[in-house]
Every structure is written in C-alpha cells, then in structure tokens.
Amino acid sequence: MNCGKFGSYVCENCQVGLWEEEQICPACRRKSRYGLRHKYCHMAYGLDGLTCLWSYEGIAKKIIKKAKYKFFYDTLGELINLPDGEEYFYLRKFLESGSVVVPVPLHEKRYRERGFNQADVIGQAFAARHKLAFDGHLLLRTRDTGHQAGRSRAERLLALENSIKIANWKLKIPQAVLLVDDVWTTGATMSECCRVLKTAGVKKVWGMVLAR
Question: Kind of pairing, strands 139-141 and 164-166?
Fold first, then answer.
C-alpha cells in the first residue's frame, strides 16, 4: 500500500506511517483520555464512549479510500488491530462485557453501487479477531441521505433524521453494542444510530472507527 514491497499490505518499516489518534468525548468532541463521554456532557441517547484508532492521514487514509472507492476492502484488516496502551482500557472492558458488534448501515442504493458496506467488512473482521458476536442486520437505513462530504454537522443531522431504524423488531435487542464505522468526521451518522439503538432498549453503546 505504501512502498510497494511484496509480502504484506503494510510492511514493518511502513508501519511508522500509521499514527494513533487522540481520543475524544463523543458528545463535545473535546479530548477525553479513554474516549469516555465526559460526566458533565449530558447527551440524550448518546454514545457512552468512542474509540478512534488512527489519524485519518498517511497510510490509514490511503487504505480507507482505496477500500471505499477502489474496492480493495481486504486491506482494511491492517487497521483493526487494537494498539497496545492504556488509552484502550475501557474499550477492552466493554468488549469483555459481551457486547455485539453492529455496523453503521448503508442504504441499498449505495450498497448496489459498491457491492459491499465497508462498515460491515470492518465489523465482521473485528468481531472475528476478538471473538465477538456480530449482527449486520440490526440497523436499516431507509433513505439515501446523499453524500455527506462538505456538509456541516447540523446539516448532516438534519439529513439523517428518521433515516435509520431497527430492521426487524422480532430480532433480539442486545444489551451492549459496539457500533462500528470507517471514519469519524462530525459523528452525526453514529449519533443517529446510537439514538435508534438506545430508544430500542440497548443499554450501552460504544462507538469505534478506524480513523478520525
């Protein structure tokens, strides 16, 4: 993906081009050591925590863009390893609580264009690596909200309003969900998914994205 050397998508030398991202509070989007929502940040039906693994630049950006637009989605496996360090302590605790991995849904139109949902690919790979349950059919995007690039957070939230729902109420609603996507920009999509999950009865929702 970077130097062109045969053997792996990211060789040992090029791994220095992957930069861990600073963790933020999912409500106010200011620095939070473990990605926990600040105690003073009250957000109805909001994320309990957020983990952003890598900075959206360099090799991480190249991998995500090639997966999303050139369909090299198997390369995403290079980004799903949890780095060592105490920054991920509460995420690891959340994973041990029996959480179910749920991807941010993609509208059917976008799915037909790409042939896959990148959040689904990330979620399945992460769940398999960490021996977690995976549910790719819990959430459904009912309306194509168009491309979000260039929109403000307020515009994104307005476009997303009532566009995501529980796909089938006959399915068992998990108590804890790890909500997965590729990139955190404003957090609007993940926030709307979290609202839907919590109003449906999910007690805890932690967000995880490959990059921010």
Answer: antiparallel
